Amino acid sequence: MRTKIKLLLFFVFTILAASSGYSFAHGGGLDSYGCHNDRKHGGYHCHRGKFAGQSFSSKAEMLQALKKPSGESGKGKSKK
Fold it and tell me: Who contacts 53 (Cβ-Cβ below 8 Å, separation ≥6)?
């Protein structure tokens, strides 16, 4: 009886541990810049790379900011 309970608990915890990453994963399909279109809120925002944590109205706006010299500030809005 105890063996069956231990085995059942083992499987339950294994399934929970294996599936927990799906509930926390972003799943947004980042492009080579570490950014993607935000379908829910509109616009384009970045998770990785040079513009991590910034939002833009479009990918084109981010590309324009990318072309600016590094000393110039872009129009990207930082997420808080």
Answer: 46, 47, 78, 79
